[in-house]
Every structure is written in structure tokens, then in C-alpha cells.
């Protein structure tokens, strides 16, 4: 009899846990839109460069996103340029936006590749791709994001 009660209790607990998980999964979170809006060289060493990036984060959901961290990578013209993480907390209101300032690191090799490509190809523009994950308070799994754009370095008319 005690064994039957224990088994029934465990089974009931698993069912309730599953139902709670289903209710939680009912809220669909659209991925935020993340755009690179600024980049400034902070430190240059022989093997590493540090940049301060300004990211505009837009929330397409009707509820606030409570960001507790970022993990991302920046590519320039299809080549890996820099990696970054941030534990900066930020609340983006529903259908709103906010700015995050994050520090990224690039290596001498990624910078050399970019300079080589500029010299060889006579680039008219530099395209970036930023992608990664945003950790949200109240969400067990991070939300992925990806964005592309043009750095506009070689078009002074912009």
C-alpha cells in the first residue's frame, strides 16, 4: 500500500509538472531584433583589440523582455570579426526598444583578414552579421537572434 501511494504521488507530481510546463510554453516569445548602431575602438594590443558596441534591441512582443545576458558573434563581410558576452541587465518594454553597450574582442588575425580584403577587393561597403543568444529572466532557454546590415564606412553620403 505505501508503495502504491508513493507511485501514485510521483505520477501525479509528473503530470502536474508537465501541465505547468505546457502552460509556460503557451507564451510564444518572438526573437528580438538586434541592430549594430555604433562601434568604437577601446583598446588595441598586439594580439587583441577591444571594441565598445552599441546595440539597439527591439522587442516585437506585447510583453517586456527582461534581459539578463547576451552571448554573440559579429561577422564582417562573411568573416568572423569579434565575439562578445555581457551580463548587463536590461528591460525592453513590449513593442519598445533599448540600447545596450557591450564590449567585444577581436584578434589580430581577424583584423588582418579584414584589412587584406579591403586592399584586395576595393570594397564599396562592409556588411555585418550579428547573431547569438539572449538569456531572459523567467525563461529556461535563451532566445536566438540574428541581424545583418551595412556598416556604411565607405559611403560618405549616408
TrEMBL record:
Domain Water stress and hypersensitive response: from-to ranges: 34-154
One GO biological process term: response to desiccation
Annotated PROSITE patterns: PROKAR_LIPOPROTEIN
Gene3D superfamilies named among the record's database cross-references: 2.60.40.1820
Superkingdom of origin: Bacteria
Name under which the protein is recorded: Water Stress and Hypersensitive response domain protein
